[in-house]
Design brief:
Helices cover about 45% and strands about 15% of the residues. The protein is α/β, with parallel strands linked by helices and about 300 residues long.
Length: about 300
């Protein structure tokens, strides 16, 4: 693959995208590039003020950009259901869903439904959102679901006997669990749509190390300071980091069931290329078990 840039995005007029966590960082850069190339984009965020400001920034860059903000708190399944119901009732087309929003390294906090906040936000919320919108997505033009994971998934596992961290909690370990869950979900969704003959691509992406507020908004103490230093010394920009998920979302050559990340040393920096998930993330039995648990916890089932 040649070094892919946003300049290679085709004219996206007539296509609709929904990007979670789109008020800043990778999500904003993804939404901005899609809008600049003519797409209709729904920016979903839990902050109305930041979401509306992001819409204004995009419209200032491209006059007439087809962008709108919708309130979504992925940590609250009631919010996810209300959001999906509004998208459906308003007959908004979703050709591509980009499951981008994330939470990283917070102290242990439980959501309204009693789930650990990283697992709830990064995995369960996106699982439920994808399922609730799946009938809409499957009718889309070149329909895709792009789930954004992290290099941290390679150190992750699913603590099926302690999903909420009641017995033992580490901010990093539970972040790794949530990002591992993203990969299991994306690959299992690919298997299921293929088996059902449904023309929806399920793709995965990660940004390497990109400088965003993800690393500093939730961590506390020493970890927060280390993240700040790392962002200054090691990270690439959010605009470059977003290229892998943009490639997965729009490029005709991006294949369902594939994982895209930076082409540089250690996948930390660079332009999109196909990368390999951890071998443990390709274990189908683990993915099936997570799927069943996710259906039980969210009350959402996919109609294949």
């Amino acid at each position: 693959m040649d070094r892919w840039t946003a300049a290679q995005i085709n004219d996206e007029r007539g296509r609709s995208f929904l990007v979670t966590g789109a008020n800043s960082g990778l999500g904003f850069e993804t939404a901005r590039e899609l809008a600049v190339h003519g797409a209709r984009v729904v920016l979903a965020s839990r902050s109305e003020a930041k979401g509306l400001a992001a819409v204004d920034r995009i419209k200032a860059e491209r006059r007439g950009a087809l962008v709108e903000f919708r309130l979504l708190d992925l940590a609250d399944l009631d919010s996810v259901r209300a959001f999906a119901a509004a998208i459906t009732s308003d007959a908004i087309t979703v050709d591509v869903l980009v499951n981008n929003a994330g939470l990283m390294y917070p102290p242990r906090v439980l959501t309204r439904q009693g789930f650990e906040s990283q697992f709830a936000t990064n995995h369960l919320g996106h699982f439920a959102l994808t399922g609730l919108l799946f009938d809409t997505i499957r009718r889309g033009r070149d329909a895709r679901v792009v789930t954004v994971s992290s290099l941290e998934h390679k150190r992750g596992s699913i603590h099926f006997d302690d999903l909420a961290g009641e017995r033992s909690y580490s901010p990093r370990r539970f972040y790794q669990q949530s990002k591992f869950a993203n990969v299991l979900f994306g690959l299992e969704l690919d298997r299921r749509v293929r088996a059902a003959g449904i023309p929806v691509r399920s793709l995965l992406a990660h940004p390497g190390w990109a400088a965003t507020n993800l690393q500093t908004s939730a961590p506390t103490g020493v970890m927060k300071q280390l993240m700040r230093i790392g962002n200054r010394l090691l990270a690439q920009s959010a605009a470059i980091g977003a290229l892998s998920q943009l490639y997965a979302a729009v490029d005709p050559a991006a294949e369902s069931g594939c994982f895209y990340g930076p082409d540089g040393l250690g996948e930390l920096r660079g332009h999109p290329t196909e990368v390999q998930p951890a071998a443990s993330a390709r274990v189908e039995e683990t993915a099936r078990q997570l799927w069943e648990v996710s259906e039980e916890l969210t009350g959402v089932t996919f109609r294949f």
